[in-house]
Amino acid sequence: MILVIGGEGSGKRAYAESLGYEEKDMADAVMDERPVLLHLERMVFAQPERADELFGELLRKEVVICSEVGSGIIPVMREERLGREETGRLCARLAEKAEKVVRLVCGIPVVIKP
User: Fold this and answer.
1) CA 62 – CA 45 distance, rounded (Å)
2) Does domain 2-71+78-105 have CATH number 3.40.50.300?
3) In the chain, N or C terminus with fewer CB closer than 10 Å?
């Protein structure tokens, strides 16, 4: 599995396309049979208490794409803080198991883990 992270609009989807995936291969915040999952953070924010349950299924994906949520101002709302914390923890676990971790910065892929 390849974990792709980066800020909003940083080129994460375009990077997946550069790997040969098309729009039809990408599931947007839903778990299904498609090989690429977009917007992991939206899934976690919707039900942060179930983030751990996603881990096994995510490992079976070819590419998991997540927007970075840990930078910036700490949210005031408890639910938003929990979503942010659970997304970060889940990404850390995924990065540990991933064969490759790529961070997109201004459209430039920076390989964090080969």
Assistant:
1) 22
2) yes
3) C
